[in-house]
Amino acid sequence: MKMHRQSPALSYHFVEQSTSGVLTLDREDTLDKVREKVHTATKKSLGETWDVDQNNIVHPSVKSVVIFSDTCGLISCDKDTQLASEVCEKSLLALIPSPLNSNMGNLPVSLPVQVPFVLQSPLFSCNSRRNQLSSNDDMAKIVQQLQEKMHRIEEKLQETLVASKKVIQDNEALRQKNKKVIQDNEALRQENKKVIQDNEALRQENKTLEQRLMEDSKAHQESLSRLQTQNESLQRRVGELEAEQAEHAEWIHSQDTNLLDCIKARHLLTVAQEKLADIAGVGGSGIQENRVRRAHAWKEALGPSKVLSDRLAQARHLLDDAPKPLDAKASIFVQSDEGMRLVSEYSSSIRAMGDRAAHPPTTALKLVRDAVMRHKEQVGLSALMYFACET
Q1: Which end of the chain has the least Cβ crowding within 10 Å, N or C?
Q2: Rg value, the chain, Cα
Q3: How many CA atoms does the CB half-sphere of 195 hold within 13 Å?
Q4: What are the backbone dihedrals phi and psi of residue 171, each rounded to the nearest 5 degrees, phi first?
Q5: How far apart are CA 331 and CA 345, in angstroms?
Q6: Does the reported pTM lie above 0.85?
């Protein structure tokens, strides 16, 4: 709640100390209004009391009135726009200068009141000027000294004003800095709150991921176990096929045309099925040793059905959805119904014929004697022949 000061009281004194008075000011009176009231009251009092021409006694300028405050001392004219109640607590003091002589009348309005009282009071003799200064030079010196004094006072006041403004600016800067610190702290608090929320969200997400990882790991272990079982089965099959290949080589050395033709036919079937497996993207791909394995993968990809039409449909479906396009040779082959039949049969007659040639039910001595004789360097091969073959 704003506190209203009471109207200040003002005592005014004519510079010769022969006239004084008291004025009650309004709260809304500015300092220039106060100077005007004091100037008017002084001229009126002198006219009524002494019956003299006030214009020859009172300084003609209202600005010549000097005002002192009970809080801040001498009040300069540059503060005349302020209210009188703002520059004092209870009272003001005003001094009214006199022109005294023609030289004094030309002084600045801020100086006449400071001239020593060495002249005759104009209230007792308006036409005579006793105790006049000895010369204009003496007056000039006094004026110069007063001006220098006023200049020093003004410099000090200016320094004080600058220092006060600096203090005010520093305080305002400090206030703004404190405000910025408060805002930064609030922003940091909000950021920390956001970090905590994000951390909690991440914790929940990690928990979900851990559960999913455990489930995936369990499924992976089960899948790995199934793959290991399948791999063991395939390894056994590969062993059997490798043994067949060894026997094929043995039969090649025997130069038995009919048996060798059967084995070659089975080999052609294996190579064709291996290439189809590569095109369809089943059974992977690898070096020569895995050819039989890939051919077997083609057979398994056609499914468990023994019906030829079903197996042919599945074969064409695999090739239509192949990951890589058919080359010219493959395109020609798939147009052959008989060729597609041979690679799609559940029980292949070609493979059965080759198996019988490679693994005859009986082994006659006459079929292998020539081969053993061509490889005499293999010690013990003859003993093996007589032991295994039928006569």
Answers
A1: N
A2: 65
A3: 6
A4: -65, -40
A5: 20
A6: no
The Cα 308–Cα 39 span in angstroms is: 135
Please spell the DSSP secondary structure of 126-182, one letter per residue.
Answer: SS--TT--S-HHHHHHHHHHHHHHHHHHHHHHHHHHHHHHHHHHHHHHHHHHHHHHH
Q: What is the pLDDT of residues 244-272, one digit of tens each?
A: 666 655 545 454 677 778 888 888 888 88
Residue 295 tokens, joined? 């051919």
Given a contact cutoff of 8 angstroms between Cβ atoms, the answer to whether 72 and 87 are in contact is: yes
The whole-number pLDDT of residue 84 equals 80
**DSSP-derived secondary structure letter, 62:** G
Q: What is the pLDDT of residues 286-345, one digit of tens each?
A: 444 466 788 888 989 999 999 999 999 999 999 898 888 888 998 999 899 999 999 999
Region label for 40, one of left (φ > 0), alpha (ψ between -120 and 50) or beta (otherwise):
alpha
H and E: helices and strands count for the chain: 12, 5
CA angle 302, 303, 305 (to 5 degrees): 110
